[in-house]
Specification:
- This protein has 209 residues and is of the alpha/beta class.
- Helices cover 39% and strands 18% of the residues.
- The chain has helices at residues 2-9, 31-39, 58-62, 81-93, 107-120, 136-142, 147-152, 157-165, 198-208; strands spanning 17-20, 44-50, 69-75, 98-104, 125-129, 175-176, 181-183, 192-193.
- The strands form two sheets. Strands 1-2-3-4-5 form a five-stranded parallel beta sheet. A three-stranded antiparallel beta sheet has the order 6-7-8.
- Helix 2 links the parallel strand 1 (17-20) and strand 2 (44-50).
- The longest helix has 14 residues, at 107-120.
């Protein structure tokens, strides 16, 4: 596929990690070619999959077993606990590398996820806030910064000088959208297309900074 061809360009690069995300990534028609590429390269791949889309098919799950592959399972506030227990048992049995990311919309859901985390045992876990259109107060209380927070933030001289030239949060990262466009930051102009050479995209990125 086109994506696989682009990844082949990275085989001899210094790219160390790619994130596969967006919708149900398991429906990507060349998923097994992609998995084979990752297994045969130095690049580590993180497949971000919503819990609702996680399969219980053991053969399919086994295709993700590799030191280079991590499944990051995203938990919505409402999930099927019976399916979760069955899935967790399969993943443990076959030693498939996983991470659980809990999408939090409220303090109540946070407490629920913390209890679930203890129940599942020691795992690589993370918590990420999720805005659902109705939880602005939760974000104001726990996520958003105020002027006092900004004043307390300390930066080194090196960080200040570096950020005068480039945005360190964006530079060196590429997002590929479903139409093949490349972005260093999805909120700004595209730096190229998936069919472009890496050097052309890099030149476009330098022009953006």
């Amino acid at each position: 596929g086109v994506l696989n061809n682009y990844l082949l360009k990275l085989r001899d690069s210094n790219v160390k990690k790619i994130n596969i995300t967006g919708g149900d990534v398991l429906k990507y028609k060349n998923i097994f070619d992609l998995l084979d590429f990752v297994k045969g390269s130095h690049i580590k791949a993180i497949f971000n999959i919503n819990m609702l889309n996680m399969p219980l098919n053991k053969d399919l799950l086994m295709s993700f077993k590799s030191d280079n592959i991590l499944i990051n399972i995203l938990f919505n506030p409402d999930y099927d606990e019976r399916k979760l227990v069955e899935l967790n048992n399969i993943l443990i049995k076959f030693q498939i590398k996983i991470k659980y990311t809990y999408l939090v919309i409220s303090n109540e859901k946070l407490l629920k996820f913390q209890k679930l985390e203890k129940k599942l045992g020691e795992k690589d876990t993370a918590y990420a806030p999720l805005y659902d259109g109705n939880n602005l107060d939760f974000f104001k209380e726990n996520i958003m910064l105020n002027s006092a927070d900004l004043m307390e933030t300390k930066y080194s001289k090196r960080e200040i000088f570096a950020n005068q030239s480039i945005n360190q949060l964006d530079f060196g990262k590429v997002t590929i959208t479903s139409d093949g466009s490349l972005f260093s930051n999805i909120n700004f102009d595209s730096i190229g297309n998936i069919n472009d050479s890496i050097s052309k995209s890099l030149t476009a990125e330098f022009k953006n900074v």
